[in-house]
Amino acid sequence: MYVDYLNSPIGLVEIEASVQGITRVDFVDTITHETNLNEHTRAAKQQLDNYFAGDLETFELSLTPKGTDFQQRVWQQLLKIPYGQSLSYQDIANALDNPKAVRAVGAANGRNPIGIIVPCHRVIGSNRTLTGYAGGLERKAWLLEHEGQSFRAETNEMNASQLTFNL
After folding, report:
1. What is d(CA 73, CA 80) in angstroms, rounded to the nearest whole number?
2. Euclidean distance between CA atoms 12 and 100, whole angstroms
């Protein structure tokens, strides 16, 4: 396993890779592994840094997430959501030609191991409200506003510039 860390504006990000590509990108509280870099961790760290700086909208990385066939199909749909746009869980289910799979789409979205790069944060409720995000709704709000989107967080208006993080 190859691993590196990035201090982002919204917390510490852990990047894991195999020889084939990126396997996991997640927010963590502390550094728990010794850094061990390869070409994939280096590229991911650079591209994430550029994304957070506002200089990158599309990632070009080799991704190798582990999951079921259905999860892989959902994650492939997430990769099709353009920067600055969002879709609902229902939209993803419809794109998979399985409109009744909304809950399964939500579960697969929640198990996405490659956050930010596979943009699960761009999936919101059908009424444009924020719904679950493994990194926390404050981070989801920040990411969406960073990409220029407006939304409602549950029933309250949120402004990501007013959010604070205890890091």
Report:
1. 11
2. 36
- Specify the range with the lowest mean pLDDT, choosing from 96-100, 130-134, 154-158: 154-158
State the CB neighbour count (10 A cutoff) for residue 125: 17
The pTM for the full model equals 0.86
Catalytic amino acids?
A: 120
Query: Which of 19, 20, 26, 149 lies closest to 82 in space, CA to CA?
Result: 149
Q: Tell me the Ramachandran region of residue 105: left when phi exceeds 0, alpha when psi lies from -120 to 50, beta otherwise.
A: alpha
Question: Which secondary-structure segment (H or E) carries 69?
Answer: helix 69-79
Q: Which two tokens stand for residue 148?
A: 């220029």
* Helix, strand or coil, per DSSP, at residue 143: helix
As a whole number, the mean pLDDT across the chain is 89
Closest-CA residue to 158 (of 139, 166, 147): 139
Rounded to an integer, what distance in angstroms lies between the CA atom of residue 30 and that of residue 4? Answer: 12
Q: Which residues contact 138 (CB under 8 A, 6 or more apart)?
A: 10, 160, 163, 165
Joined together, the tokens standing for residue 110 give: 């929640």
